[in-house]
Amino acid sequence: xxxxxxxxxxxxxxxxxxxxxxxxxxxxxxxxxxxxxxxxxxxxxxxxxxxxxxxxxxxxxxxxxxxxxxxxxxxxxxxxxxxxxxxxxxxxxxxxxxxxxxxxxxxxxxxxxxxxxxxxxxxxxxxxxxxxxxxxxxxxxxxxxxxxxxxxxxxxxxxxxxxxxxxxxxxxxxxxxxxxxxxxxxxxxxxxxxxxxxxxxxxxxxxxxxxxxxxxxxxxxxxxxxxxxxxxxxxxxxxxxxxxxxxxxxxxxxxxxxxxxxxxxxxxxxxxxxxxxxxxxxxxxxxxxxxxxxxxxxxxxxxxxxxxxxxxxxxxxxxxxxxxxxxxxxxxxxxxxxxxxxxxxxxxxxxxxxxxxxxxxxxxxxxxxxxxxxxxxxxxxxxxxxxxxxxxxxxxxxxxxxxxxxxxxxxxxxxxxxxxxxxxxxxxxxxxxxxxxxxxxxxxxxxxxxxxxxxxxxxxxxxxxxxxxxxxxxxxxxxxxxxxxxxxxxxxxxxxxxxxxxxxxxxxxxxxxxxxxxxxxxxxxxxxxxxxxxxxxxxxxxxxxxxxxxxxxxxxxxxx
Length: 560
Known about the structure:
By secondary structure, the protein is an alpha+beta fold.
């Protein structure tokens, strides 16, 4: 059980950077400082395919960035180059929502002239339908925020099985009204989630959107070869006059998939032909030293860490059902070795809390200290001996099929071997990884993954989704520990009820420490990012979770 705090909340010291699941801070560089010109084809080089083209299913940083190119919602996160890139702003709606006095009803009015890529109008009916897909038991495995905030009967199973959503009203074509389970002052942020988007009524059943989409954003799908290529072209029915965020400079986007990380880096460094128009994810650790060359250094962009890489431990499986064992893992892990395995101090810092320092609401603490962050095997062995496990045990660790994560897993193997714990690695393809570990019946004893806050207005989206026992689901589960502690659940409700968001953020920092006393996870790293865009790329502002693709363009669209 968690302790309940009785002291008055302290005054919040503002964090150096307010962050969301889609924004970070970068050093000004050539790509971020040049003005894009309309036209040309932007290219993305990437290792793995997106999890899903269907936003009701997908929900991770990479695919969320893709969704911004092809889908629109009532609200969205501001542009990556905005004065406050963490703000929530209107998108399809004329303004942010209007809440009733009791906070249980939110009303939005749609803009005029909204259309899908086939020319059909987007009205409140299409929004109600698209949003209600989040309740479908098979499809709705993406962001849980709609289901967690909008009122619906327990047996409501989405539009295909249950029909219209009983918690959403559409009194006319331009008005949509949401009835909430409980007051939630951050509801505008909920509607900025990737699955809160419109679709034509009746579309998208079963696997219809596995290989195709119906776009509402500036681009639509021309080609999709799973695991190989995605090509987007302009949606001729997107009206930029209705869109204050997306600039959509390129005429087309091409995503080249299935490339080895080292190959991507080599191509970007060489910058030959169309690769001058390319971007990618973070560079490989082995590439860092070569980026010091003058012709490359001027292209380098960096982004701060605001996500936490952690090892979640399944508390429903022995021996992780014992808090002493979970605490022992936190003591034993060598975070200095993990930092080295992840590229050194340029790319990662050891993590001791769930909420990163750059996120509003972070509290600085370390409940499991060790000299030089190298681990404390003796303390870990004491804890294991206290529950009769001094001879150790073995467990299976789920990891993604990526070199850095495998190196991290090997570091954990070596550290835990010092306390007689054997770690077997279960390597899962990246494209299916999140679905697998998010399905309790398929996850193993533990998993390495990461978590970023979904919006910046509070820290309410950082720790709670990972430990709220009431949110454990058969699919799309984010509580990998499967911990269902009444004290945790009560504290979440207590802090969420606070109307002073600054004071609430102080309590979220305390809550982080309370959760870590129970150790359902082991924070590992705060991973920063180094990026190398092509020489012809402009207005590229990278992020360690989700880069805003909608503002990127080319300096010379005729090149490449």
